[in-house]
């Protein structure tokens, strides 16, 4: 019998995540008597957190578990510009002139993804937007018009001092956004992505001096946004200084998914996937 490769293991893990999501959906539909998933029950959330808080670690897990799309607005903007879409051309013109891309353009890019990206049918994670209360209000208006209001605004909270050691050791796989850490979460093979084997990079702005400036800007911008979502009643704070597994369990708790975790694992164990 041929040895099992890392690629096969990763494929099995992906299958497990998708089965868990399917089991979660079926259990809910059996309990509620629904014949299909409702918009009210689909996953729609924003992930808030400073650089290095763990968004790049937790967002893919949420995406895989619930079969939803991950909309990192920075990546989305770059993709639209690269594809030379109408929105991308408009954004590039503004950026070439040294201006900031307007809220309307960003919100329309998000709307376009929700309308055209099949991965967004079950819901979405929004990462990197909104950064101001005005953006949050504009996003809410668009989502309400689409009958896709936000369900959760999850803030990954961590002391600034802990972020320096995290950030300065961070490694990124550019194509997927997967993140690693030289000490806390090293890749299986030095400077290579676990899934593709492609080279990892360290971002040029991942240094202590740049981080302090980014954190100062982040706190100034984010505090009002967090306050906004608290008044909406959808905010939840997670202690991101914990190890990634405890952070993950805390996030599942916000979703009310602790029952699903145990029951799904039991079912998967019976068919040899746990």
UniProtKB/TrEMBL annotation:
Protein's UniProt name: Adenylate kinase
Domain Adenylate kinase active site lid: 170-205
Gene3D superfamilies: P-loop containing nucleotide triphosphate hydrolases
Comment, domains: Consists of three domains, a large central CORE domain and two small peripheral domains, NMPbind and LID, which undergo movements during catalysis. The LID domain closes over the site of phosphoryl transfer upon ATP binding. Assembling and dissambling the active center during each catalytic cycle provides an effective means to prevent ATP hydrolysis.
Region (LID): 169-206
Keyword Ligase: no
Reactions catalysed: AMP + ATP = 2 ADP
The keyword Secreted appears for this protein: no
Gene, per the UniProt record: ADK1
UniProt xrefs under InterPro entries: Adenyl_kin_sub (IPR006259), Adenylat/UMP-CMP_kin (IPR000850), Adenylat_kinase_CS (IPR033690), Adenylate_kinase_lid-dom (IPR007862), AK2 (IPR028587), P-loop_NTPase (IPR027417)
GO cellular component term, pick one: cytosol
Binding locations of ATP: 52-57, 170, 179-180, 242
Lineage of producing organism: Eukaryota, Fungi, Dikarya, Ascomycota, Pezizomycotina
One GO biological process term: AMP metabolic process
Molecular-function annotations in GO: AMP kinase activity; ATP binding
NMPbind: annotated segments: 72-101
Cell compartments where the protein resides: Cytoplasm, Cytosol; Mitochondrion intermembrane space
Function: Catalyzes the reversible transfer of the terminal phosphate group between ATP and AMP. Plays an important role in cellular energy homeostasis and in adenine nucleotide metabolism. Adenylate kinase activity is critical for regulation of the phosphate utilization and the AMP de novo biosynthesis pathways.
Coiled-coil positions: 9-36
Subunit: Monomer.
Binding site for AMP: 73, 78, 99-101, 128-131, 135, 203, 214
EC code(s) of this entry: 2.7.4.3
Family from the record: Belongs to the adenylate kinase family. AK2 subfamily.
């Amino acid at each position: 019998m041929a040895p099992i490769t890392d690629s096969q293991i990763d494929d099995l893990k992906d299958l497990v995540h998708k089965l868990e999501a399917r089991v979660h959906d079926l259990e809910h539909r059996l309990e509620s008597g629904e014949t299909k998933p409702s918009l009210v029950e689909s996953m729609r959330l924003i992930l808030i957190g400073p650089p290095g808080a763990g968004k790049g670690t937790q967002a893919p897990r949420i995406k895989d578990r619930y079969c939803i799309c991950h909309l990192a607005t920075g990546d989305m903007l770059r993709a639209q510009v690269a594809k030379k879409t109408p929105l991308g051309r408009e954004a590039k013109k503004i950026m070439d002139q040294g201006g900031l891309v307007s809220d309307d353009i960003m919100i329309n890019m998000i709307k376009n993804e929700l309308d055209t990206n099949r991965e967004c049918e079950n819901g979405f994670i929004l990462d990197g937007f909104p950064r101001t209360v005005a953006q949050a209000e504009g996003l809410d208006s668009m989502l309400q018009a689409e009958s896709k209001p936000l369900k959760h605004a999850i803030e990954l909270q961590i002391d600034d001092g802990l972020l320096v050691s995290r950030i300065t050791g961070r490694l990124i796989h550019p194509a997927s956004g997967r993140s690693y850490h030289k000490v806390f979460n090293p890749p299986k093979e030095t400077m290579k992505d676990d899934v593709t084997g492609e080279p990892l990079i360290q971002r040029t702005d991942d240094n202590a001096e740049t981080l302090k400036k980014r954190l100062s800007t982040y706190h100034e911008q984010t505090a009002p946004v967090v306050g906004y979502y608290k008044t909406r009643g959808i905010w939840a704070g997670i202690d991101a200084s914990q190890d990634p597994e405890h952070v993950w369990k805390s996030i599942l708790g916000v979703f009310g998914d602790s029952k699903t975790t145990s029951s799904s694992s039991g079912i998967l164990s019976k068919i040899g996937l746990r």
